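Researcher: We're teaching a course module on how sequence relates to structure. For the next exercise, students receive a sequence and then see the predicted structure as tokens, so they can try to spot secondary structure elements on their own. Here is the exercise chain.
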Amino acid sequence: MSATERWQTLVVMKKFFSFIFVILVLIILLLWVFKAQLVSYVISKESGVDVRIESVSLSLNGFRAKNIVAHDPKSATTLSFGLVDVKTDLLKIFRDVVTINNLKLDDVTIKSDPGKIDLSQFGGLFQRKNSSPKKSSRSGQRYVIEATEASNVQIQVENPFQIASS
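Model: And here is the predicted structure for the students to work with:
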């Protein structure tokens, strides 16, 4: 192989790797821009309920999401949060057991018809502190929530005078 052929090969390789680098940067940029939609999709698939999230901010020690609405059409229950602050090690999120050190919920609203409030579809938010790790319904991944703090909680019963049909 002559020096000219080697030079041409290097130029082609440089263009190829530059193209791959630009594509990777664009993919990362798109994931970052659409992270709220991506997190909404993953949580919806994982929990089996419709979840919408307005914004998400990430850090190495957890994440914060604003204006979350989760709706379970089976039980006609809607659970909404003004703010969810999760303290966990994001580098360990793909392990068999994920430990959530602190889960802070603010402006919590539960809406449902009378007798239909079923929070079991909304994960382990309401588990006892010393209970065994809960298993996610879809992926089988286990998680433990060490501390949960909720503030400004409202329960709204829709159609309070609804008469059950026989």
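Model: If you want an answer key for the exercise: The chain is about 25% helix and 40% strand. The longest strand covers residues 97-112.
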